[in-house]
Design goal:
about 210 residues, mainly alpha, two-stranded antiparallel sheet, 5 helices, flat, transcription
Length: about 210
């Protein structure tokens, strides 16, 4: 057990630390109602993934999939065209509430019809092709490869360089002006250019020097 002097020194040291602690001091310049923003910024991979999923959903569900564009197939009691809706009898007894009143919907059949309508959205194109008797190939609903697809592998083909003056294949590079040229005739033309013209040729392909 330590002596009373050491305990007093330890207590004085802790009191000094609490006195010098800047975190315990009330800061009047801070807003007490401020809360950090809960919204997190998306990185480029997340943005491209959301865009590809949006393109895939738009390709899978075409815009002309309304009831009028639904292909006429064999009715199995689940059609959404309204032909299989239960009608009232002549005396007003049935699914209706009386003569001249609106028909009460059949909830079970409406639920099945809604499920079938969702299924017909994805099968609209194949059924239309079968109804028309056309042998055209049906496009897949899978997302197509675009330049925004982050999963695409980089090209391993060697870069092709072209002449900045003539546009022909350029296997040579002038070390002085950094202009690519096709042959020695173009090289002689490049060396005869006045000052500043070479930078204009480089500006065409974005390789010029920008001084700030």
């Amino acid at each position: 057990m330590s002596n009373p002097e050491a305990q007093a020194a330890q207590a004085a040291h802790l009191a000094l630390i609490e006195q010098l602690d800047i975190h315990s001091i009330h800061k009047t310049f801070r807003n007490p109602h401020w809360r950090p923003n809960q919204r997190r910024n998306k990185n480029i991979k997340t943005i491209l993934g959301d865009a590809s999923r949006k393109e895939a959903s738009m390709a899978a569900t075409p815009q002309d999939n309304s009831g009028a564009a639904t292909p006429a197939i064999q009715d199995d009691g689940l059609s959404t065209s309204g032909t299989s809706t239960p009608a009232t009898t002549g005396n007003g007894i049935g699914n209706g509430v009386g003569q001249g009143s609106s028909l009460q919907p059949n909830l079970a059949q409406a639920s099945r019809s809604l499920s079938k309508l969702v299924l017909e959205k994805s099968l609209n194109v194949p059924r239309a092709a079968a109804a028309n008797g056309s042998g055209a190939a049906i496009s897949s609903s899978a997302p197509t490869a675009t330049y925004t697809n982050i999963e695409s592998a980089p090209s391993l083909a060697p870069l092709r360089h072209y002449c900045d003056v003539t546009g022909l294949p350029a296997p040579y590079l002038d070390p002085k002006t950094r202009i690519r040229y096709h042959n020695r005739e173009v090289f002689a033309t490049i060396r005869s250019l006045p000052n500043g013209v070479g930078e204009q040729f480089l500006e065409t392909r974005g390789a010029h020097t920008v001084l700030k």
